[in-house]
Amino acid sequence: MKPADNADSIAQEFHLNPDFDFSLTGAESRLDSPGESYVHEMTWHFLFAPSPRDSLIVFKPFPMEFMEYLRAKNLETPRIVLHPDFTPTSRFAPFGWNAQTKKLAARYDSHGSQVRHPDLDTIRKVNSREFSLGLEGTWSGSRLFREWNELEFFLQKLDVDFEWMAKGIHGHAGTANLHFRTKNRSEMENQFLKALLRDHDALVLEPWHQRIMDLAVNFTVSEGGEISDFRGHELLNSRDGAFLGIKIFPDRMPPNPWRVELMASARKLGQALWREGYFGPVSVDAYVHSTPTGPQLRALVDVNARLSMAAQAHGLAKRIPDRHLIWTWIKPRKLRPLSDYADMETKLGVAAFDPITQRGILPVSPIRATPRRIGFLLAGRDEDDLRNLQNVFRNKLGRV
Question: Would you say the pTM of this structure is higher than 0.85?
Answer without folding.
Answer: yes
